[in-house]
Structure formats: structure tokens, C-alpha cells
Design goal:
Blueprint (H helix, E strand, L loop, with lengths): L6 E5 L4 H11 L4 E5 L15 H16 L3 E10 L5 E2 L16 H14 L7 E11 L5 E12 L15 E3 L11 H7 L1 H13 L1
Parallel strand pairs: 1-2, 1-3
Antiparallel strand pairs: 3-4, 3-5, 5-6, 6-7
Helix pairs in contact: 4-5
């Protein structure tokens, strides 16, 4: 398996929260992350049918356009009672008619759909993170992580991003939105995927 050498690495994302988390996870390894937004790279249409496919197409485009190795993350919230939705459409559930993302709107949609199923419905959920690392010559590696938990309402905490304020990981009493971010990085779906990447490539 090919190793990732120290130096510049494109983070194929325009999501500032996600880029910040990835920078913090990679900072220990001599990697110099630069975001797709900083390089003015376009965002591809996420047309994959699962997290790995979407991560791969984002990383592949960024590697092709930048000539640098590129790392992409595709992640989302899977609510078991909703058939694992929103899943790969997690970000789209936050989009309004103006194209702007509002995750409070997305969290409200999840809650409304759960409540419509009745008060006894399971609130079990999990986050999935798929990582794709693609080199400019087309070689690629993929990793997937997961964290299980349950959904709370109303949302709690203003840390993290996305659906974090309504997700309480198993065995914890704080949501990802309330939790110290260093602790979140230790136990999250993204951390799980990164552990696998680091063990294999660094």
C-alpha cells in the first residue's frame, strides 16, 4: 500500500467545519492541508450511490485539477427509523430554495419525520464517514468510519457543525454539539476513519 508523504494535500471540501476537523486530525503528521476552496476548485456534483463513491469522485477531481494528492470526506447522518436517511443526502436536507445550507432546518426535518412515526419510534442513529485519498496518477485508497448514538430534541450545544447538536453518542450524556471538540475528534466517525487511514498510509 502506497504511503502518504509529508507535504501539501488538498482537502477536497468547501465545508469549513469539515476542513477544520481534518486539519486538526492531520496536523500531527507533517501534512500541509490546503482546502479546495483556497485553491478555487469547483465542487463536483455528488452523484455517487454511497459515501465511498461520493468521496472518491470529490478527491479524484481535486487531484486531477491540482496535481496534488487529494483527500475527500463524504459523511452523513443515518437515522435507522427513517431507513438510514438522510444518509448521503444529509447536506441536501439542509439546503433551502436559495441554495444556502441551514442545518437547523435539516434537524427539524429529521425530527418532524420521526414524530410522524409515533412516540415509541426508535431514535437510534449513526454517523458514517468515508475517506478517499487519490493521487494525481489515479491511485486511490478508501476508508470508512462509524459512530453510533441516538437523537435528542431540542438540539443542544453550539460546537461542531451539521447535525452535531442533536446527536448523542452511545454511552455519553453530551451531544457532539456540547462536547469538547478534542473529545469529539477522539470518538467521532471521522476519527474512526482517520485511525484506519493513519494506520495504513502514514
Amino acid at each position: 500500500m502506497r504511503k502518504l508523504a509529508p507535504g501539501r494535500l488538498v482537502i477536497a471540501s468547501h465545508n469549513e467545519g469539515k476542513v477544520r476537523e481534518i486539519r486538526e486530525l492531520l496536523g500531527l503528521y507533517g501534512i500541509d492541508p490546503v482546502s479546495a476552496a483556497e485553491l478555487d476548485l469547483p465542487e463536483p456534483d455528488e452523484i455517487g450511490v454511497n459515501f465511498i463513491e461520493n468521496a472518491d469522485l470529490k478527491a479524484r477531481q481535486a487531484a486531477d485539477l491540482s496535481g496534488l494528492p487529494a483527500l475527500a470526506d463524504d459523511s452523513g447522518l443515518c437515522v435507522e427509523a427513517l431507513g438510514d436517511r438522510p444518509g448521503i443526502f444529509s447536506a441536501r436536507w439542509a439546503e433551502g430554495e436559495d441554495g444556502k445550507r441551514d442545518f437547523m432546518r435539516a434537524m427539524q426535518r429529521v425530527e418532524v419525520e420521526l414524530q410522524a412515526l409515533g412516540p415509541e419510534i426508535s431514535r437510534s442513529a449513526h454517523f458514517v464517514c468515508a475517506l478517499a485519498l487519490v493521487w494525481p496518477d489515479g491511485e486511490a485508497e478508501w476508508f470508512e468510519g462509524r459512530v453510533d448514538g441516538c437523537l435528542v430534541w431540542p438540539p443542544r450545544g453550539d460546537r461542531g457543525f451539521g447535525y452535531d447538536p442533536m446527536f448523542e453518542p452511545l454511552g455519553r450524556t453530551e451531544t457532539f454539539g456540547e462536547m469538547d471538540q478534542a473529545e469529539k475528534h477522539r470518538i467521532s466517525h471521522r476519527a474512526d476513519a482517520f485511525r484506519k487511514l493513519v494506520a495504513a498510509l502514514l
